[in-house]
Amino acid sequence: MATTHNLGLPRIGRDRELKFALEAYWRGDLDRQGLDQTGLKIRRQNLELQSSLDFLTVGDFSLYDQVLDSSFLLGNIPPRFRETEETATLDRYFQVARGSSSPGSPPVAPAEMTKWFDSNYHYIVPEFRQTTEFELASDTLLSRINEAAPGPKRIKPVLIGPVTYLWLGKSKDGGDRLDLLPHLLPVYAALLNQLAASGVEWVQIDEPVLVTELSPEWQHALRLSYYQLQSTPLKLLLTTYFGQLRENLQLACELPVAGLHIDASRQQDEVDRLIDWLPKHKILSLGVIDGRNVWKSNIKAMLTWLEPVHYRLRERLWLAPSCSLLHVPIDVERERSLDPEIKSWLSFAKQKLTELALLAKALNHGRELTAAELEANAHASVMRKRSQRVFNPAVGQRLATIDSSMAERNSPYEQRCRLQADRLNLPVFPTTTIGSFPQTESIRKYRREYRHGRLTWQEYQQVMRQEIACCIQQQERIGLDVLVHGEAERNDMVEYFGEQLDGFAISDNGWVQSYGSRCVKPPIIYGDVSRTGTMTREWISYAQSLTAKPVKGMLTGPVTMLNWSFVRDDQPRATTCLQLALALREEALDLERAGIAIIQIDEAALREGLPLRRSDWRKYLEWAVHAFRLCANGVRDRTQIHTHMCYSEFSDIIEAIAAMDADVISIEASRSDMELLDVFEAFAYPNAIGPGVYDIHTQNLPTLNGILVHIRQAMKRIPADRLWLNPDCGLKTRTWQEVIPALEIMQRAAEIVRESGCSGQAHSQQELASKN
Q1: Cα 533–chain centre separation
Q2: So what's the pLDDT on residue 765?
Q3: Can you give the pTM of this predicted structure?
Q4: Is 577 labeled as ligand-binding?
Q5: How far apart are the C-alpha atoms of 170 and 172, rounded to whole Å?
Q6: Partners of 170 in the β-ladder
Q7: What phi, psi does 556 have (nearest 5°)?
Q8: 323 among annotated binding-site residues
Q9: pLDDT over 50 at 759, yes or no
Q10: Which amino acids are annotated catalytic?
Q11: How far apart are CA 669 and CA 689, in angstroms?
């Protein structure tokens, strides 16, 4: 009999209850008891979702981030947050994630945040020092087990494994993270003993690091860890996901654990080898339901593949989603506005667990018992393949016209920058923002009113123009050099464009967590992508009409549109990306024709699309960079192209970033204390750079001295004529009360640096360009 289980579930709640409860708690409008009640409600709902499975997974719920939970579970709290012992544990938890500030004291910076493997989820990076000590604090996890224990189902807690936990973190003093493993493993052993004492039989212990390229030292760390932990009285299900094991397959099979889970949605070709190599006493858990995308599984096709596997493994076969369902929305049946045909092709978290139960039932009891359900599932797959709305011959014909010249600018950067300097006449160290300004409650209300038909287009246009005018006025008052229209009309940087492009569907409730209380609603790319009309020109042109200063036209780039959407799985991602690039190229040319001098094409998600193994990078970067260049490089030399990249490590792909040939790239740098700029000491980046000089993802107001320090750190690495100043990300999630003083401080810092750094030198980019 095949056994079913789940690796994790969405934790935001069916109606994003956790998001709203968190934000109310941070504002002081909700007390601890209210927050706890919201969390309990969501956990109970998630237990109910798993009722058709053989195991109930617990420990996957988090108030902010599961890696941060692990840090608190293991007693690894950054020292700067330990100094205020009177702070309640929960408040300290949020301080590590968001930073803290109090009257009369300097602000305390939050821990770094970065992407979880190749997903759009962000985790709080653990901090390590050579002196780091670990101390078990398991009360929260044990209480979650007790919540679920009274039922008849078996409980399976989930933990991040010790090696992956160290791998995810960062050494703050240059020490080797693996030197901490001997101190960490006794804490894990104590935890596993506690879980055994609480009646737990199986523990899911996640080591996704096994799908990456590991050095011999990290491979040895896995052996050491699990040979030491095998003495604990528990059965460990070693869990991997997001990729293939490849050269780590033998290692994974040999580790002394009771079972191994693999992402079989991505590595079916490894299953036969695993069955041959895995010792006969071990469980093999196959992640057969794709936990990263929203398309229905073809259960009949899965059965054809799995029936021989089931015959060989019998009770040793477990079935599960490929990874945690954190990465997909909760329930497609809550979608009321989706086109019924497209909706019939989709499967969210609840439906994926239903598919899993159906698959196991058919394997365990035969296809005949589930014939009607299997037929309904197969019908959806057939209808999707036959649908005429998926393929657009005109898009294919347009792709066939692409040639290499379309991805090239007319002149190299050295020539373009002079033309742009003459046109823009900006001061040295020009200041700007990344694009978005606060999405206030009134803006969201107007958008809802328009969407529900309670505002006419003319009324909606008028109120959005008022918001844009206010945004321009504030930027001019502050003194910023290059302005933005603020994106008041946009619900999301990807969804906004998806709503206006053919080939996209937009859900009502398809929310997934990005980090903390931040949720996004990825569009669904179901068919060939094309542009049917202008998407941004009217709003940008209106903003430009209000000021003599340049206003950036704001587009989301093709790679980010791809990586932040649920993408069709019936053609290569590279092909879909080229379709997006052509559609956005038309929009960029439209803006240029409207007189817009600067066009920013954000590629915030370029790096997160990288395959997890470096050996696979080249192919991805080739088509991703080509798509960006195809989108951006149709404009004339005097039009300046900007791009922006979010929280990422850039050093290992800096050559690819340079190959994008954007005139200006803005990057996150402040939260890493400008460490990301170290790469520019070794690599002569040829174009202009705008490092983020303050972190917008914290409640802390930046200090003048802090921004000046960051600017001077940047000046050591980036020539003055190519250095821009900006926040590290868009300001959508902040309030005006936070944004205005922060930008005023940034502008004042720019003026100080200009006054102190330009004595006897050029005071404008135009002068600098003429000297070079």
Answers
A1: 29
A2: 58
A3: 0.92
A4: no
A5: 6
A6: 127
A7: -95, 130
A8: no
A9: no
A10: 697
A11: 11
